[in-house]
Amino acid sequence: MENPFKNIDKPLQEVPQELKSKVMHDIALAKLLMEIAELFSYNIAHIIESVTNNREK
Predict the structure, then answer these.
(1) Per-residue pLDDT tens for 7-56?
(2) What is the per-residue pLDDT across 24-34, written as a single tens digit (0 to 9) for each?
(3) Which of 9, 24, 26, 36 is the most exposed place for a label (fewest CB within 10 A)?
């Protein structure tokens, strides 16, 4: 097995464009899903809180 730390001091290599675009697409999709999940989780918490507050009144 090759030691990957031997390549640290060597110059960086260019990443193929198709791989770079796929990674960027996957990151954008993950970010979108996290934002959607945050939006729904915030609204559900707010709805539960308002229902419990209204029941007490």
Answers:
(1) 888 888 899 999 999 999 999 999 999 999 888 777 777 788 888 888 76
(2) 999 999 999 99
(3) 9
Question: For residue 47, how far is the Cα from the chain centroid?
Answer: 25
This prediction's pTM: 0.54
**DSSP secondary-structure letter at 9?**
T
Coil vs helix vs strand at 54: helix
Q: How far apart are CA 48 and CA 54, in angstroms?
A: 10
Reading the block at residue 47, the tokens are 């709805």
The pair of three-digit structure tokens given for residue 52, joined into one six-digit string: 């419990």
